[in-house]
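Our consortium's second objective concerns turning raw sequence data into structural hypotheses that experimental partners can test. To show how far this objective has progressed, the report includes one record in full. It was chosen at random from the queue rather than selected for favorable results. The single chain below, 180 residues long, was entered without modification.
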Amino acid sequence: MLKNLYFLGIIPPVEIASEITLMKQFCADNFNCRHALNAPPHITLVPPFRIESAGLHMLDALLAQTTISFAPFFIELNGFDHFSNRVVFVSVENNMYLNSIQQHCAKAITGILPLDEPDKARFHAHVTIAFKDIDPKNYELIWSHFERKSFNRMFQTNALFLLNYKSGNWDISKTYTFGK
């Protein structure tokens, strides 16, 4: 049976997402680094996983039940950082509630799906600007463009998003509003 590819994340409000999309577009236009444009700006809570359509109904019920206990909370984006020479991103300030929600979601999903050992994967909240298709020759140029820039935004989030990979892009499949 065909398994579709999904991930679970938090998407910032439109105004902030638009600003981050412009950063991604800058990387695409100036450094031919386009891969990050395949998804809306987001904080990944559970990395991509495959699930059959039959299991999707169980996942949907699980996420709906799980998010009932969550309350809206604030997330602060502050500056830029990178993972070695392969990812440039907007930094997310350490947030105990975000960390707790990530752990809760990964643990809940692991109950129905064999994820890649979520306990061993360290969660580092961030919003990707460039990754995967960064040419090593351009990495330093991309990083030098962002490393000294200031970017500080705060937003309240009240939902998790399940995104589905279709035709080369990640699209929102379902929204799970906290407390509902």
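The partners drew two points from this record. Residues 77 and 138 are 25 Å apart (CA to CA). The longest strand covers residues 73-83. Both points have been shared with the crystallography group to help prioritize constructs.
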